[in-house]
């Protein structure tokens, strides 16, 4: 595993390396360049912070590279930020303390970027500095004496251009140097009063902390305006806060504002360190960014470009995905046909494989084209630096209901499909804003609702009111969800999540040309995670619903239905039952197909799902639903578009009908109540049709979305979202039906 | 030349000023300071979003967007030609 020179004391575990840096420094590019495809993505326990770990091979053996979230400082205000200092202090569950830290700094803005390095120096960890975007610095006439900088800081400094892979090869030697010679960056000298305070606070904490806090962690409590650690300790030991307040008072007596002291002292320390090392040749040239921004964040043009850009993204996700989704759908049907053929002798197994398993796999694979296309655009928007501008332009529009500018793209994406939309919320740093955006995303009218609208509008609205009203209805249906979602977001952020007004301090990075490799990596990672994690759950839900629709299955039912059918057909055609039975022997005959549908319908009728539909129908009666619609609603919980094939089966048309199917339109238009107070009246009146559409607009009928919400937040939120949306959908449908009936 | 004490909010697009102090909420001050906005530094108002909020500022080669409510806490001294 190691070279011949390896010592006996070589570490038993792989070397642990942490990668850290400000946002937008090209940290992710560097991570991808160093590890290639050998990476695992997960979450840190308890928080929704993405944990990325990659493998790399150093001359000394294998090493783990942990990509920490991009951050400007080590302050631990939120739990999410806490992750960074936890990992660096060796307090993260299941993660050894790093042996060395690679700090990625932007060479075009060295002083500001070294702030984080200076904070890490305080942690006593060996460090390597990657001086990234070196090419831009050279182009801008920034002259950095790398050797002098390395000597001054006391750690190896490697100029890199992560996008091109330049300098990445020099990192392993630098890492080895830093580890072997324990190269640590020159530390800031804290005033003696600070060191004394740390000891006093440590005494006050006693054994009330779960882990023994490092000096740095204790200092953080003094400096951070709102420390997550202190909030936690405060609950067990109020003495700690007193000690902290005392330490702050000591600082004030020294003439230092405790909230500003850390920044001021670090920057002073850095000024001394880099003095004379950086020279600016000629005028500072902010590059193209300034001129591009003149258009892109302009009050008028900025909006025009933004709307055009969003239209392009939305249109592409919507229309480019279409052919691929059709292809997947066709392939699914083809596989069902072939695989189904292998099980001809065992109908139960055949149905389980074709209608359960393959249908279930298809139910999530079908979303892949949309996810890939949306991730492609999100990677482009982020890596170019435009995403921050989009958030800047849209912030005001969303801030009043507790969201922020970064919620816009996920919301818009959800109009194509909530799943990529929810995954896109990862760009929102604030966890509460992110959760609120996740929870309202499924209200946006996704493309799977479209077939339902088209079927019902085509069957009832268009024939009666003409194409204009039909088009208008379709348009309005796309806003029903949004209209409900906005007050929901307001209530959620204000009363449920109780988020404080979050500051919206966001860097607008320089524009850069994205690297194809990073874009492809994002698409791949998104797709892979979706399939492995959401896929299993969707598959399970689909199989359960299949079972409820398939069982019980008494064989005598088919015989009874067949006997009735033969008798009926014989008298209708004035033929002998024997002749009819002979014709039925040909499975392709019209009569046989009709009988097949009749049998399917009879089985659904007495299946567990059918019985549930009949039992639950009284709940949906105030919305004007009969038991068949109720079964359709229940069966479409895994995927809302299933309602069309389910209605097809229940109304004896077979399962292969679609929203354009004239047969289904006619049949449901002719369906009448056969019992109850409305007997003889048509079931699908305009209020019922509108109620069904509103129900589908507001209901969370998508197993994949529920699974993704669970993965991105927690099962509690996923189930809460599911129940909440179902209740809202019911209320919406009842109101529409009741109000509609007053006019109808 | 006359110095005018005002806040970041009052700057016109393209106007440059010097930071006097950060008097916003502590956690906002800290966020701005770690990004490099410190007293005595010069800061430029770059742009105002189409709906009037937030604003974009530039300091030390960094472009940062922040909301008006946050910018109101940054006291600046602008050096304008007196009329």
TrEMBL record, chain A:
Question: What InterPro entries does UniProt report for this protein, alphabetically?
Answer: Fe2_transport_prot-B, Fe2_transport_prot_B_C, FeoB_GTPase, G_FEOB_dom, Gate_dom, GTP-bd, P-loop_NTPase
A Gene Ontology molecular-function term? ferrous iron transmembrane transporter activity
Instruction: Tell me which GO cellular component terms the UniProt record holds.
Output: plasma membrane
Question: Which compartments does it reside in?
Answer: Cell inner membrane
Q: Which UniProt keywords apply?
A: Cell inner membrane, Cell membrane, GTP-binding, Ion transport, Iron, Iron transport, Magnesium, Membrane, Metal-binding, Nucleotide-binding, Transmembrane, Transmembrane helix, Transport
This molecule's function is given as:
Probable transporter of a GTP-driven Fe(2+) uptake system.
> What NCBIfam families does the annotation carry?
feoB
Protein name (database record)? Ferrous iron transport protein B
Q: Source species, please? A: Rubellicoccus peritrichatus
From TrEMBL, chain B:
Question: What SUPFAM superfamilies does the record tag this protein with?
Answer: C-terminal domain of transcriptional repressors
Q: Which UniProt keywords apply?
A: Iron
Record's superkingdom? Bacteria
GO terms (molecular function) for this protein are: transition metal ion binding
**Pfam families membership:** FeoA
Record's keyword annotation contains Zinc-finger: no
Q: Does the keyword Iron apply?
A: yes
* Ferrous iron transporter FeoA-like domain: residues covered: 6-78
Kindly provide the name given to this protein in its UniProt entry: Ferrous iron transport protein A
């Amino acid at each position: 595993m190691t070279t011949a020179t390896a010592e006996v004391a070589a570490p038993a575990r792989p070397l642990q390396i942490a990668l850290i840096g400000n946002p937008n420094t090209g940290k992710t590019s560097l991570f991808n360049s160093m590890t290639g495809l050998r990476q695992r993505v997960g979450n840190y326990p308890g928080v929704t912070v993405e944990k990325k770990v990659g493998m790399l091979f150093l001359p000394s053996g294998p090493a783990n590279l942990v990509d920490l979230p991009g951050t400007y400082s080590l302050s631990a205000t939120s739990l999410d930020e806490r992750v960074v200092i936890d990992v660096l202090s060796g307090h993260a569950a299941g993660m050894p303390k790093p042996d060395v830290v690679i700090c990625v700094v932007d060479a075009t803005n060295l002083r500001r970027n070294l702030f984080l390095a200076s904070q890490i120096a305080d942690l006593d960890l060996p460090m390597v500095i990657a001086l990234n975007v070196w090419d831009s610095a050279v182009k801008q006439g920034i002259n950095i004496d790398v050797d002098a900088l390395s000597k001054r800081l006391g750690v190896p400094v490697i100029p890199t251009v992560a996008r091109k892979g330049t300098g990445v090869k020099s990192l392993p030697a630098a890492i080895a140097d830093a580890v072997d010679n324990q190269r640590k960056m020159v530390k800031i000298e804290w005033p003696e009063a600070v060191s004394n305070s740390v000891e006093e606070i440590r005494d006050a904490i006693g054994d009330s902390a779960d882990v023994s806090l490092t000096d740095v962690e204790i200092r953080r409590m003094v400096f951070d305006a709102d420390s997550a650690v202190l909030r936690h300790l405060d609950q067990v030991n109020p003495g700690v806060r007193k000690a902290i307040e005392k330490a702050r008072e000591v600082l004030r007596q020294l003439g230092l504002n405790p909230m500003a002291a850390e920044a001021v002292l670090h920057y002073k320390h850095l000024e001394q360190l880099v003095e004379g090392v950086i020279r600016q040749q000629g005028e500072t040239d902010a590059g193209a960014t300034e001129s591009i921004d003149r258009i892109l964040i302009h009050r008028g043009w900025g909006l025009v470009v933004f709307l055009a850009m969003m239209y392009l993204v939305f249109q592409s996700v919507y229309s480019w995905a279409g052919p691929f989704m059709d292809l997947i759908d066709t392939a699914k049907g083809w596989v069902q046909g072939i695989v189904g053929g292998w099980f001809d002798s065992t109908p139960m197994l055949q149905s389980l494989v074709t209608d359960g398993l393959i249908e279930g796999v298809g139910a999530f694979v079908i979303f892949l084209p949309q996810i890939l296309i949306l991730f492609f655009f999100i990677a482009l928007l982020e890596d170019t630096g435009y995403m921050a501008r989009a958030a800047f332009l849209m912030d005001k529009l969303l801030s009043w209901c507790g969201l922020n500018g970064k919620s816009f793209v996920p919301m818009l994406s959800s109009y194509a499909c909530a799943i990529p939309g929810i995954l896109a919320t990862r760009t929102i740093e604030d966890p509460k804003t992110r959760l609120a955006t996740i929870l309202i995303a499924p209200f946006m009218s996704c493309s799977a609702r479209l077939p339902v609208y088209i079927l019902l509008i085509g069957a009832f609205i268009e024939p009666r009111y003409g194409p204009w009203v039909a088009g208008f209805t379709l348009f309005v249906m796309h806003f029903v969800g949004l209209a409900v979602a906005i007050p929901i977001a307001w209530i959620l952020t204000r009363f449920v999540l109780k988020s404080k007004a979050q500051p919206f301090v966001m860097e607008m990075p320089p524009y850069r040309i994205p690297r194809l490799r990073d874009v492809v990596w994002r698409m791949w990672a998104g797709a892979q995670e979706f399939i492995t994690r959401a896929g299993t759950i969707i598959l399970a839900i689909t199989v359960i619903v299949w079972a409820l629709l398939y069982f019980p299955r008494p064989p005598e039912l088919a015989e009874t239905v067949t006997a009735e059918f033969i008798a009926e057909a014989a008298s209708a055609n004035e033929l002998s039952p024997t002749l009819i039975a002979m014709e039925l022997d040909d499975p392709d005959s019209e009569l046989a197909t009709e009988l097949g549908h009749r049998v399917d319908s009879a089985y659904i009728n007495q299946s567990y799902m059918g019985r549930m539909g009949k039992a639950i129908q009284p709940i949906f009666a105030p919305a004007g639903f009969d038991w068949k619609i109720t079964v359709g609603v229940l069966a479409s919980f895994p995927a809302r578009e299933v309602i069309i094939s389910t209605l097809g089966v229940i109304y004896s048309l077979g399962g292969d009908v679609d929203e354009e199917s004239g047969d289904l339109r006619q049949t449901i238009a002719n369906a009448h109540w056969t019992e109850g107070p409305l007997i003889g009246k048509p079931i699908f009146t305009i209020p019922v049709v509108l109620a069904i559409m509103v129900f589908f607009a507001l209901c969370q009928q998508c197993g994949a979305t529920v699974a993704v919400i669970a993965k991105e937040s927690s099962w509690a939120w996923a189930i809460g979202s599911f129940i909440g949306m179902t209740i809202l959908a019911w209320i919406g449908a009842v109101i529409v039906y009741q109000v509609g009936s007053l006019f109808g | 030349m006359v110095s005018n004490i005002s806040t970041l909010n009052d700057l016109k697009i393209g106007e440059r000023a010097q930071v006097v102090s950060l008097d916003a909420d502590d956690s906002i001050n800290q966020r701005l300071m770690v990004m490099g906005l410190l007293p005595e530094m010069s800061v430029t108002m770059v742009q105002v979003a189409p709906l009037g909020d937030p604003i974009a500022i530039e300091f030390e080669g960094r472009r940062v967007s922040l909301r008006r409510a946050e910018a109101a806490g940054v006291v600046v001294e602008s050096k304008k030609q007196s009329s």
